[in-house]
Amino acid sequence: MFTAAKSDDIIKRAEEKARAKEAPVTFVGKEGFTMLPEVSASLKILTTFDAQCINDLSFECISTLEKKGEWDSDRIHSIKEKHTILSADDLLKAVTGLYFISRAAVRDHVPLSKIKKDMISLGFKADIADVFVHHIHSNRFNIERVSMRNRIHYPRLERLKWRIDLTISSSRLKRVMVPTVTMQFFLDNGRIVNIDLSVEKFHVLRYNVAKLLLQMGTLNRHPMIRIMNQLEEEARRGM
Questions:
Q1: Contact (Cβ atoms closer than 8 angstroms) between residue 58 and residue 132
Q2: Residue 132: count of CB within 10 angstroms of its CB
Q3: Which 3 state secondary structure label does DSSP give 173?
Q4: Which end of the chain has fewer beta carbons closer than 10 Å to its terminal beta carbon, N or C?
Q5: Which of 198, 136, 151 is nearest to 206 (CA)?
Q6: What sections of the chain are H helices per DSSP?
């Protein structure tokens, strides 16, 4: 049976779909489609805050990104005490949403001009968008450096020791006289790897390393790589 409640529900869902279609596409996605629900839930709260409140929240979000997601509960509490208009629930939504916005801006290398433009289209005032952009501009490279250091990767080689051992005899033969290359790899995770190579296998390793270095040098000299490096350098200067 078709009731007034069902009719209101249909109208409400139609209005939500219409608003979603009109929502701008920003670096944090499109509201109602690709935008994280945490960001969507925080926008109505964040857009009501003044510049000083956004400044304090941005500082905390940037600090958290630099510390790989470790929140400072004391500083969060001090923000709540300083801005008494915030309820605990609103503060949690605001900090979470601004954290994801900050992470998206740094992760995707979004230009500062686009960050400001998109934040204004999301409902932020121009002066408040400038405050957020200032924090991103001042701390972008620190966050990227921390992110690179903490990313999942294979251990790196820190030191290498090697020596040549000569096997004079064995239990089967009195005279062997076979050289062996012993290599010791010191990795950045504290692990030490020891390998013994015959002369033939050592030459295979040496050949493959030389071949890899040659390929890397050829790749670095490729015109497209030079263009990409130049564009990246210009983008950094413009940030």
A1: yes
A2: 25
A3: coil
A4: N
A5: 198
A6: 4-22, 37-46, 51-66, 73-82, 88-107, 112-121, 126-150, 199-220, 223-238
φ, ψ (nearest 5 deg) of residue 166: -115, 115
Is there a contact between 150 and 68 (Cβ–Cβ < 8 Å)? yes
Amino acid at 22: E
CA distance 192 to 182: 13
Which residues of the chain, if any, have pLDDT below 70?
1-24, 31-33, 68-70, 84-86, 150-151, 170-171, 173-176, 232, 235-239
Q: What is the pLDDT of residues 70-93, one digit of tens each?
A: 677 777 778 777 776 667 788 888
Q: How far apart are CA 171 and CA 197, in angstroms?
A: 20
Supply the pTM of this predicted model: 0.58
Q: What is the rounded CA–CA span in Å between residue 162 and residue 183?
A: 4
Give the C-alpha separation, 65 to 100, whole Å.
Answer: 10
Nearest to 62 by CA among 167, 141, 180, 158: 141
The tens digit of pLDDT for each residue in 149-195 reads 766 778 888 999 999 988 777 667 666 678 889 999 999 888 999 99
Query: Of 158, 157, 179, 160, whose CA–CA distance to 168 is shortest?
Result: 179
- Other C-beta atoms lying within 10 Å of the C-beta of residue 150: 11
